[in-house]
């Protein structure tokens, strides 16, 4: 049991309503049980005989604090983002659309970087985006960035405050796990401290989160998914945009944006080794655009694929540190990437950084290296793919200005179809298909 859960049980037992609120807002679980399997609400009832008014206040405090902390099933309206930076308004979930009971399979989950929530999105008819809309939001913590969902339906969300644990089936927050790394004050925006990339071990026993320490090297923190505690920390490069895991679970890879490298972390010993990935060189340092952002691990050989500028695909062999480069054709600044079940690489183009560059796009790169470029309307950030590999969902959040509060849905089978714009959350970045 972690300290916040213990504080909540103690506060409930003694009738301390202020301490109850503080514990739950800090991430304590309202369903935690003591050694006699009593919940905080049940413990609060024992106050009633001696202090009935105090007991009533405690019960109300437990319910209210849980709601404020985003622990209640249903929707929590997101705070509006900066209207000058976004191309459209925040898509607020409609209460009438929220499904009763368990969240349907195929629902999309996005991290609302412009707010403090994750939003559940109905992808529409047959997952096409047509008729889709947000259905519910849950508060998770300031400026959520990356997220990952396990087979048990729990989502792990990297926020500026800690890693939030969300029951996606019931749409509730279960916990907020603070970072062991000191990353400065909780803020928002592209350069905020706190969690960025996040990944699960293949067996679901560990979560690995990249923690940004502004102006310094970051860390990868290891979280035990059973105890929800940080069990280890490894020093990595600057701004770990993305975190991935080898197919056998033995290594964790942090893509270190501002240090032009990838850090490999031994999952058992947490020993690290840095491998430079800089197909354009490192000239310009922190001011350069030509740095690594996201990577994917190729399942059949364990090599990392890192796209650069729609021109070069860096292929990193983590066993040797050797980088080979393959040609790409989108000619646009690139961020998020994923692989479809058949090995097709999807890469998000955010738009031009120079006068001769092309606009935002989605690159669909077949295993043989041939590419199809799908134009997108406005900058986008990350991408996920449907279970059948036929549909791509591209988040419009983007880490810089010009973002949109939407998901673009791309039919990967029908080359003649037009992408569908689906309203979704507040500056959505990370995305998963439930």
From TrEMBL:
Kindly state which keywords UniProt assigns to this record, in alphabetical order.
Lipoprotein
Superkingdom to which the source organism belongs = Bacteria
Q: Does the keyword Lipoprotein apply?
A: yes
Q: Where is this region: Disordered?
A: 75-104
Under what name is this protein listed? Lipoprotein
What is the species listed in this Swiss-Prot or TrEMBL entry? Streptomyces badius
């Amino acid at each position: 049991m972690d300290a916040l859960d213990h504080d909540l049980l103690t506060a409930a037992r003694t009738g301390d309503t202020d301490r109850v609120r503080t514990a739950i807002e800090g991430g304590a679980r309202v369903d935690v049980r003591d050694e006699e399997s009593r919940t905080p609400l049940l413990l609060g009832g024992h106050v009633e005989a001696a202090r009935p008014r105090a007991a009533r206040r405690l019960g109300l405090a437990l319910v209210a604090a849980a709601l404020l902390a985003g622990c209640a099933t249903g929707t929590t309206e997101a705070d509006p983002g900066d209207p000058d930076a976004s191309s459209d308004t925040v898509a607020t979930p409609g209460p009438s659309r929220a499904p009763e009971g368990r969240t349907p399979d195929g629902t999309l989950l996005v991290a609302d970087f412009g707010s403090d929530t994750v939003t559940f999105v109905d992808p529409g008819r047959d997952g096409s985006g047509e008729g889709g809309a947000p259905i519910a939001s849950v508060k998770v913590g300031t400026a959520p960035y990356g997220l990952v969902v396990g087979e048990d339906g729990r989502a792990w969300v990297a926020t500026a405050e800690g890693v939030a644990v969300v029951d996606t089936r019931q749409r509730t927050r279960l916990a907020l796990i603070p970072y062991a790394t000191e990353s400065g004050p909780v803020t928002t925006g592209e350069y905020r401290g706190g969690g960025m990339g996040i990944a699960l071990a293949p067996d679901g026993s560990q979560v690995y989160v990249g923690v940004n320490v502004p102006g310094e090297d970051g860390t990868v923190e290891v979280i035990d998914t059973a105890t929800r505690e940080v069990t280890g920390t490894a020093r990595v490069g600057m701004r770990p945009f993305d975190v991935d895991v080898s197919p056998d679970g033995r290594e964790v890879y942090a893509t270190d944006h501002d240090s032009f490298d990838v850090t490999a972390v031994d999952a058992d010993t947490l020993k690290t080794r840095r491998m430079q990935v800089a197909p354009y060189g490192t000239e310009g340092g922190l001011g350069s655009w030509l740095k690594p952002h996201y990577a994917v691990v190729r399942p059949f050989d364990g090599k990392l694929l890192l796209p650069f500028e729609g021109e070069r695909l860096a292929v990193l062999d983590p066993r040797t540190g050797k980088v080979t480069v393959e040609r790409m054709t989108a000619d646009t600044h690139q961020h998020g990437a994923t692989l479809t079940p058949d090995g097709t690489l999807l890469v998000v183009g955010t738009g031009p950084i120079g006068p001769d560059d092309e606009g935002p796009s989605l690159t669909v790169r077949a295993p043989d290296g041939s590419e199809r470029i799908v134009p997108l309307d406005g900058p986008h950030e990350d991408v996920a793919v449907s279970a059948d590999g036929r549909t791509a969902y591209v988040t419009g959040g983007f880490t810089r200005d010009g973002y949109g509060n939407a998901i673009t849905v791309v039919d990967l089978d029908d080359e003649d179809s037009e992408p569908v714009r689906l309203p979704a959350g507040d500056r959505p970045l990370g995305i998963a298909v439930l």
